[in-house]
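User: I'm designing a mutation panel for Oxysterol-binding protein and want to avoid disrupting the core. Could you give me a predicted structure to guide residue selection? Please restate the sequence first so the numbering is unambiguous.

Assistant: Good idea. Sequence first, for numbering, then the predicted structure tokens:
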Amino acid sequence: MSESKPPTPTPGDTYKGWLFKWTNYIKGYQRRWFVLSNGLLSYYRTQAEMGHTCRGTINLATANIAVEDSCSFVISNGGAQTYHLKASSEVERQRWITALELAKAKAVRMQAESDDSGDDCPSVPPTSGQGGGCRNSEVQSTLRTMTSKVEDLSTCNDLIVKHGSALQRSLSELEGIRGGGDMGDKIRQVTERATLFRITSNAMINACRDFLSLAQNHNKRWQKALQTERDQRIRLEETLEQLAKQHNHLERAFRGATVLPPSFSNPALGNKTGVSGKGDASDEDDDNEFFDAMEDPAEFITVPADPKYHRRSGSNVSGLSSETGMDDQSVNFDEQSLASNLESPQPLELEPVRQRRTRIPDKPNYYLNLWSIMKNCIGKELSKIPMPVNFNEPISMLQRLSEDLEYYELLDKAAKCQSSLEQMCYVAAFTVSSYSTTVHRTGKPFNPLLGETFELDRQKECGYRSLCEQVSHHPPAAAHHAMSEKGWSLRQEITLASKFRGKYLSIMPLGSIQCIFEKTNNHYSWKKVTTTVHNIIVGKLWIDQSGEIDVVNHRTGDRCHLKFAPYSYFSRDVPRKVTGVVTDQEGKAHYVLSGTWDEKMEFSRIMQSSKGENGTEGKQRTVYQTLKAKEIWRKNPLPDGAENMYYFSSLALTLNEPEEGVAPTDSRRRPDQRLMEDGRWDEANAEKQRLEEKQRIARREREREAVKAASSPEEAVTEDSINDSPFKTDAQETGTEATEVSDETDTEDSPPHTPVACK
């Protein structure tokens, strides 16, 4: 579940990535693309701007790098330029700090070399220490030997050139002699010069062979020494990074931990985590370690657990559990989760799995005249205003509910868990994952018609089957039921309440969600948080989730309290942050969850808890010692071109795909929804208006039938039967109360009133 660590950046690398940069108090932190290259840190709004528009550059040679908290740091070059930056996590911040420090050191060194370029400097820099002196003398001796060999090669080259020229002249003279007594002398002279040339050539060959052998031998030794130096440098960099993390943890522990007692031999574990209170201002800067409280922010703090917990053997686990006040199942979480989630592979499917579609027609760019809509709304009730499909996305609310099952694997893993506390972590992650599809989805789903259904059959691919139905039209309410072959079932009854505040719209889901696991009979329930759509009137629409969720295990009494932090321009927290604590029925905390609802969730096991110092309002905070956090859920990437397909996920793209054998009331058969998906929005608007008017006529007809049934002769027969009954009362003799009850109990979606005598 832990993500793989990328290699530590080296001084010569170009380092790139996303960081949050502080802009102003109106916009707060904004996401920017940063590029570190050649001692310069530059940033752009997007990666596409790298080729033409740079928003700012700072020279690291004269810059000062300061760490503010676990995710934030500041880069300044003396006041002219100051960047307040924030990384997505502490590890990511440390990678940037390491890369920036290496780049700064290289930039300072290059600047110093440039300034001293006119000075004489030794060929080999002096090294300190006895080992360094021996190595320096060895290198100097090797260099002198190789220099001597090179001089020998140069001398041999000069002799070859000299004797070769003399031999060439002698051969020329020999060709010019026709005959005579000088022939013998010339032949002897040519023979002597040829012998000298051969001797000189042999000397040249031997010198080349000696030089090559010497170079090869020392080349292997120097390559080995260079590799050793590189390995030592990498180890030193990793050690420096670990020291920096430990230093950061100690700083945080010192800030809040007068919070930590000097000895953990007698920890105060009996305190519950339900104490509320706001933390100090310094604690608000720590994004990864200072989590939101059960009721108010900064109620508890997490610090790394003592290393002794990591070194304990299996035989000492029971002692650890008794020391920390946790049960054996919770302590053995790592071993149990590995054993429980690694089962034998499923048998191969006998039938080929259907290939689902991966694209839908691109969203057309239609012009929308808001005035033409508003002038038609004058004098009409808000519930009867026909809204065009321009504000919609081509799926219904029933299909949107079925999207909650996109990360069904979390429930599959939870079904395999032996520990209820471990199972609670997976269920809590599943509740958060259902919001990940909403971050870019500003379109409104189609309102289902009364009696509309949606069946999602994924038994062959995923092992589950889901069914939704619209059971009420006013107020709108839907029922959803899903069952899995992996041993879990999910049901929810959802209705919506909304409040329009002018600039934003708040949508409050009412109703609860129930999840039951067959193997353990654990029954979980929770409710949804408030969804807020901002910039309704002016600006770009964006969505936020805020509120609190209590996931309760009704069999064991375990509870997980999740808090969705609302977005704020002035907050220095990571946007869309979610935190939570898993407690047992006695209120003892066992796990801490943290992350964001649009990206990922992590959890860490609590090894120790204690009461810390009082906050600004005099309320105590709890300090948790935790093991290293592990990733429990991560959002799946969107398909290619999702921005042109309503930002649908891979599952959402398949929800409206036509299928054979579905019910006539299935959402896939809605004509207006199908026309909108095909890009025929004008026809979709006309069809949507026709269906809505037809539904209003049907509703009025049901109301008339209800009134008619209330005054039908059958009602009189019913009253006679009541009068003949031995259980008749004085009030029933008047024949009026039965009619009054009938009028009050009939609703627009209920059947005609059942005679009282049938009860």
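For picking mutation sites, this is relevant: The longest strand covers residues 600-614. The mean pLDDT is 75.
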